[in-house]
Write a structure and sequence with these properties.
- The protein is of the alpha+beta class and 190 residues long.
- It has a domain of 123 residues: Aminopeptidase (3-Layer(aba) Sandwich), CATH 3.40.630.
- It is built from 5 helices and 8 strands, in the order ββααβββαβαββα.
- Helix 1 crosses helix 2.
Length: 190
């Protein structure tokens, strides 16, 4: 079951972050973190080699309207992204009839280890369950991305399975762990 995600008029705020729609003047910030080797590769895309690479991604973010820019309040710059996309669960009969989306995130290397991704993701999870009325959210990580695994587990996602995922951008197949978080369980625990 499909829900259209459009974050172009959505602003979410946490203690240290603002999550908002992307703007053309975010290009320099996007390139600054996306050009660092190892950042994008952990999410399945090559680091940006030119500002034009970032311009194409920025254009895509703005057209699709399903990715938040993560803005660090203190530094007043975009330090990452958090998207709400189609999910692997859409093709799984066990979840048929459910409204499910997948979250994915990237954070500038200089901000790793500060708890910023869980902080941003909690705000987006709340938005997805309260505003979009999704039944569940999924998330995943390459098996060797232990940082993402810790984030996903902190957020309460439950492991479902490991699949092979082909990254077209990197031309490689990765073993990827898939997780799910159900709205009904969040509601009961709250």
């Amino acid at each position: 079951m499909g829900v259209v995600v459009d974050v172009s008029n959505v602003v979410l705020e946490t203690g240290r972050l603002i999550l908002r729609y992307w703007h053309e003047n975010d290009l320099a910030d996007l390139f600054a973190y996306a050009s660092v080797p190892g950042v994008g590769e952990m999410a399945g895309w090559p680091h940006h080699r030119t500002e034009e690479d970032s311009r194409e991604i920025l254009k895509s973010f703005m057209e699709k309207k399903d990715v938040f820019a993560i803005v660090h309040k203190e530094d007043k710059k975009v330090i990452g992204s958090l998207g709400v996309h189609e999910s692997w669960a859409d093709d799984d009969p066990e979840y048929s009839g459910m409204c499910v989306k997948e979250i994915g995130y990237v954070l500038a290397r200089d901000y790793w280890g500060q708890g910023l991704v869980p902080e941003a993701a909690r705000a987006v999870i709340k938005y997805c369950f309260d505003e979009l009325q999704l039944d569940a959210l999924t998330c995943g990580h390459f098996v060797n991305n232990y940082r993402s695994q810790r984030v996903i587990e902190k957020l309460g996602f439950e492991y479902v399975k490991t699949i092979q995922l082909k990254s077209q951008a990197l031309g490689q197949v990765f073993d990827t762990k898939c997780y799910i978080l159900f709205r009904e369980r969040m509601t009961k625990e709250a």
